[in-house]
Amino acid sequence: MSHIIIQGGGRLEGALTIQGAKNSVLPILAASILHPGRTTLLGCPHLSDVEASIRILRHLGCRAGWENGALVVDASTIDRWDIPDSMMREMRSSVVFLGAILARMGWAELSHPGGCELGPRPIDLHLTALRQLGAQLREESGCLRCTAQHMEGREIVLSMPSVGATENAMLAACGAEGETVLVNAAREPEIVDLQSYLCGMGCPVRGAGSSTVCIQGRRRTHDVTHTIMPDRIAAATYLAAVAASGGEVELHGVRCGHLSTVTAALHAAGCHIAGGEGRLMLRSEGRLRAVGTVRTAPYPGFPTDAQAVLMAALLRAQGATVFVENIFENRYRHVDELCRMGADISVAGRVAVITGVDALCGARVRCTDLRGGAALLVAGLSAQGETRIDDIFHIQRGYEDPVGDLRALGAEVRMEDG
Ligand code: UD1
Fold first, then answer.
1. What value, to the nearest 5°, has the Cα angle with vertex 115 and ends 109 and 121?
2. Which of 3, 376, 378, 401 has the largest count of CB atoms under 10 Å?
């Protein structure tokens, strides 16, 4: 098992190009089976979750693999509609394949996505939306058997703007007769990227980015080439790292508008930030001030995925910062690990209070989940001495080359086996 070793305490300086977004590429890979032909994805990050999606696509009978740096899927040969339990458990977002398989094949058989890393992650909204389109779903001992010989577009009101349920409903609606109108849809930029991919293959979708998304189903599709949008959470992670350690970074290939709540918080903490066309610059003296209260919320609110890395950046800030986690019930599992490094954090339910300490000290810590693991990187870089981070497979689900990126900023960090 690999681990990461960091010698912390140094300033970070340099430029980085931000990878393509994990949360955009995964639903797009599921969507690729809607078209019985080729999808070419540019800017697709090399991540373990992407490899897990490729395995699902191949299991379904599609051809999928890397060609000259692009990820190419040919779904003309798809001949199955089931996803084995072991593949479903590898990655929670595998559930978005459900809508796409139903739309293309009329049948689907898969199990519940496994685990409960951030607290319960039900899929009731996904299933309600599919039922409203006319799918019949039966749940038997953890297995979902679905048929949808004929789906018909209609208005679907989501009781909560769930990202995954919005994506699943959009994909299923591509196989439904007529127009589907999704009300109270999630507004995340990744939904806009999915819309632009679907439009590119010939499925008319409009409204993404607002809370009403309209999909015209059963249109003739064609081969499509699409560039994955930049990963706003990877960008937030590197901004947090430089904010915490002190130094200066220029991020390339970012969309500044996607990061406005994160950069507002870092600005309030005392960082100097300047944005331009596809570029974002941050300068920090390394000693930040507390920022009051940070409440996670659906986009355009502060992203729950950036909560842990911002928290890590504020561990040495002057004063106390309050975090309120409104999206997931159990998203403070990184807190115990941060406390091993000398952080002063108290948690009560959805609220965490971070009181800045003078210094953090390197320690042996363990990733509890993807973004919690990223928070350990941020904290380790600003701690005195050596930090060892175990269970880094969590980090590798969402960051293409975190060690290479941080070394490019001058960090003393390396990956070790054993
Ligand atoms: C996606 C992102 C994840 C991010 C999250 C919120 C991907 C691959 N993952 O996850 O990184 O943290 O959005 O921005 O894009 N819920 C229900 N019933 C449902 C579905 C969701 O109660 O059927 C609840 C969840 O338990 C959670 C909330 O709704 O409390 C938001 O979840 P959702 O937006 O669906 O997140 P994901 O799509 O799982």
1. 80
2. 376
Q: What is the pLDDT of residues 117-149, one digit of tens each?
A: 666 678 999 999 999 999 999 988 878 999 998
Q: Is residue 44 annotated as a catalytic residue, yes or no?
A: no
CA of 160 to the centre of ligand 1 (A): 10
> What is the amino acid identity at position 96?
V
| DSSP state, residue 113 | P
Taking CA atoms only, the protein residue closest to ligand 1 atom 31 is 162
Total-model pTM: 0.97
The DSSP string of 159-227 is SS--HHHHHHHHHHHTTSBSEEEEES----HHHHHHHHHHHHTT--EE-BTBSEEEEE-SPPP--EEEE
Say if residue 418 is exposed, middle or buried (CB neighbours under 10 Å; 0-12, 13-18, 19+): exposed
Other C-beta atoms within 10 Å of 176: how many?
26
Grouping H, G, I as helix, E, B as strand and the rest as coil, residue 101 is helix
| Rounded CA separation 210/184 (Å) | 9
**Interval between CA 259 and ligand 1 midpoint (Å):** 19
**Pair of tokens at residue 346:** 């108290």
Tokens coding 92: 């929670």
CA angle 376, 15, 383 (to 5 degrees): 25
